[in-house]
Write a structure and sequence with these properties.
Layout: E1 3-6, H1 14-27, E2 32-35, E3 40-42, H2 55-61, E4 64-67, H3 72-79, H4 86-96, E5 101-103, E6 114-115, E7 118-119, H5 121-136, E8 139-140, H6 143-154, E9 157-158, E10 163-164, H7 166-175, E11 179-182, E12 187-188, H8 190-199, E13 202-205
Parallel strand pairs: 1-2, 1-4, 4-5, 5-8, 9-11, 10-12, 11-13
Antiparallel strand pairs: 2-3, 6-7
Amino acid sequence: MRLLIIWCEKALGRQVAQNALRTLVSKWSGGIGLCTEEASNEIVPGGADNREEAPEDLVIRYDCFLVPLLPTEMLGHLLAAKTQSPAEILLRAALCSKKPVLLLPAALGPENETNTRGTSPLLKKVLQQRKQAALLGFQTMDMQNILNLQQKRAAPFQLQNRIVTEKDILEAFKSGSRVAALPDSAVVTPLAADTAREKKIELVKEGAP
């Protein structure tokens, strides 16, 4: 499973996010890429690929996306559909692809902050921004659940229908799995086969070696 980290230099809380990413990189078994305003770079062990790629190509090449920190200005641009920077264009394309686009719990601000009178104005603002991000399609996920995605991606999605349609493939895709297990006698429609190729879903018949 290939993960692309979209790093926003202007966001606050960079040190906390950097520490979390060190943990992620050390435990992630799949490929990891880093995208900043300047370029996209492979940061997997064994070498770096410093080539620049179009947002559409990155969305095709990676399975999920992680935004450790999301600046308020960038969230506003996404809500208004007025993407400007390369990172914003990439995020818009990733959200439209329906692939997982993840936020760390502190991506928009502190997870909990209270004062003597109750919830602080800052926390209220953060909670409102999280609701807005969820409406766009962002998923807030802690580090352990992000790491668990790898296991989920590896497990096959079981299809029970004898006739496999496009709807079945899309259900497998939404589950997060990259493999769909079919009954041995299943028939795959041409549209379903095309959709599986497009979404990079491997079709495996039960009982196949």
